Amino acid sequence: MASLSGLCSSFPSVKPNNRIGGELSPVRKDSLAVSTRSNSSFKHSVAREVSADLSKTNDVAGLKQAKQGGLEKDPKALWRRYVDWLYQHKELGLYLDVSRIGFSDEFVSEMEPRFQAAFKAMEELERGAIANPDEGRMVGHYWLRNAKLAPNPFLQVQIDKTLAAVCDFADAVISGKIKPPSPEGRFTQILSVGIGGSALGPQFVAEALAPDNPPLKIRFIDNTDPAGIDHQIAQLGPELASTLVIVISKSGGTPETRNGLLEVQKAFREAGLDFAKQGVAITQENSLLDNTTRIEGWVARFPMFDWVGGRTSEMSAVGLLPAALQGVDIREMLIGASMMDEATRSTVLRKNPAALLALCWYWATDGIGSKDMVVLPYKDSLLLFSRYLQQLVMESLGKEFDLDGNRVNQGISVYGNKGSTDQHAYIQQLREGVHNFFVTFIEVLRDRPPGHDWELEPGVTCGDYLFGMLQGTRSALYANDRESITVTVQEVTPRSVGALIALYERAVGIYASLVNINAYHQPGVEAGKKAAGEVLALQKRVLAVLNEASCEDPAESLTLQEIADRCHAPDDIEMIYKIIEHMAANDRALIAEGDCGSPYSLKVFLGECNVDELYA
Ligand SMILES: O=P(O)(O)OC[C@H]1O[C@H](O)[C@H](O)[C@@H](O)[C@@H]1O
């Protein structure tokens, strides 16, 4: 077998084409900047592009006279700006500080009509309009936390019934009424199998809210990585017998999830366990998964609704069932989300925290995603918030075309981990390096549950350090013209987490309207899935060609070019090379002779003929 070490591949980096078209060309802050930008060539090229845009549009004409200057640095004026713009949701104890984003009053006035249009679109969406026109779907995640808002009684009943079923099932599992066949008599573990929107919300919530000793501990299989899957199953060990496997897939046909399920089912067989007695599915009615569940008689099935997208499904059974099984108060999550929904229905920009976020994003990224969003929660339990937001924001906003069919290549890149940890990693670059981002700090006021705090040194607790690090980083970044938003909550509770999720869901929806894109589909993802399917189909052809050659002459070996020609895929020779490299590395039934670092020298053969396959 050939040794294939030393091979590497590199990918060219592609800069998005931020062309602007259609009626809603972005209002560009450069025309009315209060902020002094660095003298980078980027600034100049943007400025040139902007002046060209301005000449084509009417809506920003008057803004050229807007005041010029830098980010506000005078402490008194900055404090006034802070107080002036501070948003507070009293009941939720949530604050939003946008003072460190340099938008001007003129910019806000100019954006006002767009916001009114966005509010109108959101109102229609909530009333059941087909807000996802490409897929002909309604967008109803807001109804999940207040079923009365659903546009018809049938949907209301579906929502309420599902919530009741989730609560009843979780209670029954926790109390031991529903139990595994094993002698342990109680489910102790959850293995969640799902990917993307069917994993990220449950992962975030588990990390944020699961108690230290939950009634059921959760693990995730969120990939088709065999080693990752083996690791999760090995970690469960004998507890597989008391593991409730929740398979989550809206479509019920996502290959990674299907593979995870098949792998887990194999592990159950090998352990002599009956999977159906421990399997639960969350999926759309009549999906492939739903039908499998029915036929095999799994423990339970919960519905995913056509009108809830994966990335906004945390408040559906997708997020609620795993959370409830871990002892999280899901009704509190729903209350937090519903309260935030109410607040973000305001049509007064200053009173609508989601609109304020969208305003900041538009300003900071020029309405074209020219800057990245760095999300920094200063709280370990919120670690996965940035990963969760990465999908919510990037899959929603990262679109090639706007609603009028203009090529816009929209989006905002999101990344982040947590403070103060990141201060010892990449914040050096944020402070002094390439200026291609804005930060969102997530601040949690309560350091520890009451009664547990102590002073590390006179007058100073461990939490004071965390607080100091956040404030220090925010100030140091601002001093170097790096803009930031700060979202503050009192504590990480089911209610505040529900509110945070709802806040960002709405902000994404509003921002999508501002830039005139469909936030609720993901056509680009389909392209990758299709291409992956083509690779696997090519692999089957390669194996068939090698088998045919072996059947003709067991000693016959083929060059890559010969394989490509016989596959009628001469242009796919590189992919054929990668297929052979991968199969050889995994001791599959092929032999590759030669130097794999010199692909032309490779000779590949199977060594044995599979007659059945030949005539298959
Ligand atoms: O829930 P599923 O249908 O399995 O989909 C899981 C995920 O896969 C897709 O590729 C989409 O990009 C995601 O939005 C979705 O959440």
From TrEMBL:
Pathway participation: Carbohydrate degradation; glycolysis; D-glyceraldehyde 3-phosphate and glycerone phosphate from D-glucose: step 2/4
InterPro entries per UniProt: G6P_Isomerase, Phosphoglucose_isomerase_CS, SIS_dom_sf, SIS_PGI_1, SIS_PGI_2
GO molecular function term, any single one: glucose-6-phosphate isomerase activity
Catalysis: reaction(s): alpha-D-glucose 6-phosphate = beta-D-fructose 6-phosphate
CDD domains attached to this UniProt entry: SIS_PGI_1, SIS_PGI_2
GO CC list: cytosol
Biological processes, Gene Ontology terms: gluconeogenesis; glucose 6-phosphate metabolic process; glycolytic process
The entry's keywords: Gluconeogenesis, Glycolysis, Isomerase
Enzyme nomenclature, EC number: 5.3.1.9
Enzyme class: isomerase
TM spans (from-to): none
Pfam name, any one: PGI
Entry similarity comment: Belongs to the GPI family.
Protein name per the record: Glucose-6-phosphate isomerase
